[in-house]
UniProtKB/TrEMBL annotation:
Domain of life: Bacteria
Protein name: Uncharacterized membrane protein (UPF0127 family)
Record organism: Streptomyces griseochromogenes
InterPro entries with a match to the protein in the record: DUF192, Saro_0823-like_sf
């Protein structure tokens, strides 16, 4: 089985010759560098926002990693408790959504690139450096301290973070 490794510059490279490419992401701690974490799976977890004042904020998180889960996203919902992480993703749309949302674009190191509020029926501009997208109800990300440059951590539930 091939594995996705990272070159010194941070770009992904294939290891093990030809075959399937396995997407390796940051795990619960986000430490150890790229490729050292666990793979994420669809399900529940926690989002930890490392705010500038030294007090981390922990929020409920839904992980949408599979194609099916990413495609559905927040469609058909009236609200969300916490946030939803779409991964991999570099852009979103709000067609057929019932509510306005806040969208945070994250790079491969889970650092916020940009935060935007999107109303229903809009197509968001993709961010070239974005690898993940966080979605939440409109207006809440400002209260969480989620602004460009802030780093977040993803802590999947124990039984969802380990590949079987």
């Amino acid at each position: 089985m091939d594995q996705l490794l990272y070159a010194e510059g941070g770009s992904p490279v294939r290891a093990g010759g030809y075959g399937r490419l396995v997407d390796v992401r940051y795990g619960a701690e986000g430490g150890g560098g790229p490729g050292m974490g666990r793979r994420w799976r669809d399900g529940a977890g926690r989002l930890v926002v490392d705010r500038g004042d030294g007090t981390p904020l922990t929020l409920p998180l839904e992980l949408a990693v599979s194609y099916r889960a990413r495609t559905k996203g927040l469609l058909g919902r009236d609200s969300i408790n916490g946030a939803m992480l779409l991964s991999p993703a570099s852009g979103v749309h709000t067609f057929r959504m019932r509510m306005p949302i806040d969208v945070a674009y994250l790079d491969r190191r889970l650092r916020v690139i940009a935060v935007r509020t999107m109303h229903p029926g809009r197509l968001g501009r993709p961010r070239l450096r974005a690898r993940h997208v966080l979605e939440a109800e409109a207006g809440v990300m400002v209260g969480w301290g989620l602004v460009a440059g802030v780093r977040v951590r993803v802590e999947p539930d124990a039984d969802l973070g380990v590949p079987r």
